[in-house]
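My current task is to audit a protein record that another person submitted. I need someone to confirm that the token line plausibly describes how this chain folds. Take the sequence as given and treat only the tokens as open to question. This is what I was given:
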Amino acid sequence: MPKRILQGRVVSDKNEQTVTVLVERRFKHPLLHKTVRSTKKYRAHDAQNQFKVGDLIRIVECAPISKTKRWTVLTDEAVTA
């Protein structure tokens, strides 16, 4: 089964080796047919502490690292947009 890759913005980098990423999802409401924005926060592992608040990054699923961390930052590049 392929691992999910999500793109979002870093909203917190206060913890050691951890960033909080806000991921926005857009979908059409099934009854109202209106575009709805839904957001969710994920905690991701950032081993080198290289990403700061406001960076646009990609995260990938991984095995549980701690109680709340199940994602790892893709370190190949920061997304430019």
